[in-house]
User: Fold this.
Amino acid sequence: MAPEPTPLLSVKDLTVDFKKGRQVVQAVAGISFDVYEGETLGLVGESGCGKSTTGRAIVRIEEPTSGEVSVAGTALTGLRRNDLRRARTSIQMIFQDPVSSLNPRRRVKDIVAEPLDIWGTETGDQRVATVREMLEAVGLDPDVAGDRFPREFSGGQCQRISIARALVMKPKVLICDEMVSALDVSVQAQILNLVEDLKAKYGLTLVFIAHDLAVVKNVSDRVAVMYLGRLCEVAPSDDLYALPAHPYTQALLTAVVEPDPEKATAHVTLTGEPPSPINPPSGCRFRTRCPKAQEQCALEVPELREIAPRHQVACHFPTLRP
Amino acid sequence: MSTEQSTTDFPTTEELSGPLLTVKDLRTTFSTPRGDLTAVDGVSLELGRGETLGIVGESGSGKTVLSRSIMGLLPRSKTTQTGSILFEGTEIVGAEDAVLRDIWGAKIAMVFQDPMTSLNPVVRIQRQITESLRLHTSMDKAEAKATAISLLGQVGIPSPAERVRAYPFQLSGGMRQRVTIAIALACSPRLLLADEPTTGLDVTVQAQILDLLSSLQAERHMAVILVTHDLGVVATRTDRIAVMYAGHIVEMASTKRLFASMAMPYTQALLRSTPRISDPSHTRLTAIDGRPPDLINPPTGCAFAPRCTYATDQCRTEAPPLRTAPEDPTHLFACWNPLQTGHAGSVTTSKGEN
Assistant:
């Protein structure tokens, strides 16, 4: 967990534009972050903030408009098609909807073995053994599950199959995009615990994208908060939730409902909704909803800067620690 | 439809006494190709005027089917319903369309989870709000329009006079949900059924919508049934909570009592598997092993027994009846081995190996 000098995954000044007619939506507007080996970085934000696009741009499912993504020193951006395919074996992705991300016509053992078949890395008995190992690792009985089809499994089990498929090439980095948000609480807890176990077992580095602040806190070592394509705040989980410095992080945290009737519901709810990314506000993108906004916020874009060790915030008037 | 009565009539004293809604031994069964599926299995509950009841459960627990049964919204074919649902003296189970038409929108209204699919995409929101006003009240077009604008204002939509001309796609998700709430409130219903009203919404918008619902409810003295999978949503917004599992109500108590001294292991397990922002990161969650039972072949005994850490042989053979807690007659639970009072609610978070 202790940060190493060289990050395993490094994102520099990443931007992703979507063109819609003559309009340009800047879904990701220049974000930079590092993820160190063995670390889980949580990426939270409301819908439309660009968190999923960031995840997809890292593996180049979505082509970044500019910026650089590198894994273990290799720049993914700029790789040619074949080199990119090869590089992607070390960086895998898990998606939100476990049922639609599995081929309905293939048996579970073949779904899990597909990456091995494509790369021809393992064949015959070894291939079978690896698939069994992966299914067992995600808590499925290979004898029962292997010959079945995805439709015979519940959402939670399908998510387990997706995890097995993602891990079969022994990747270094796993990008999880809202992987538990379609699941029931009891199943969500099973999958979150499983992710923690597998991370320890296989030494994985995770980017965990989700909108649920409690879920993100539970799995992450550090959390990055996004708003309208930009990073607002990055800090170790416990610090971020205890001492949020950015007004947006504070607003998000007060809006969370806790399963405890004793907790007061007096929230300083944000008024309104995020503005359109087609025409984002000048300066700080949050200023239109920010209770602390001043003239400077409209004029200058706040840069991400360190206000405490490993605690970065992009705000002209952050709440500093006492 | 000539017998239709104006909803603005002041309720008679006779109507005001007694519960607003009484559900007795409701059983809703769907026939499926695999066999009969009993989605709601012997549910009884009462709801007072102005009360907020939370119905909590995971997918497949029957919470949505229960709320749709109360509204009389289930398809008639392939659905069998027994038991009784009395709403202000009107029986809903087996009611004629004409009877339901007088109730829908006017007395019971519903807010659904997905505002995009519950709104008509090709109709301006003005007409979607005024539709029920024109049908159930004697308002003319201009009055209905004025009411629609005032409703949009009440649900917190900025510049309502212009927005009333908008189509649903021109509004954001949160705004659309506000519109569906405005539609539901148009005829001042006595009961609002909100089925996962904030599930697809962002946290900040969710807080806004929940606050809106509570303030509107207080203003109008309207009863609300809030159906959700999220214990956090009901914890601070309801008077009472019913926890459902496999078609049964397994525990029901006042919100305070439920969280302070829950008796049913399932309620506790549900609460413990929910991650909380007040816990330190990497807190091991207490997951519930396995998954809910197949309702076509429900297990004998307690439906939760296969996943329950306290299960005994009795649990696996004999279904526990819903009984009252000795200290509190309003606290009901269905369990042979209830949790000890006082310990049940104290959620220890340092449970895991991490």
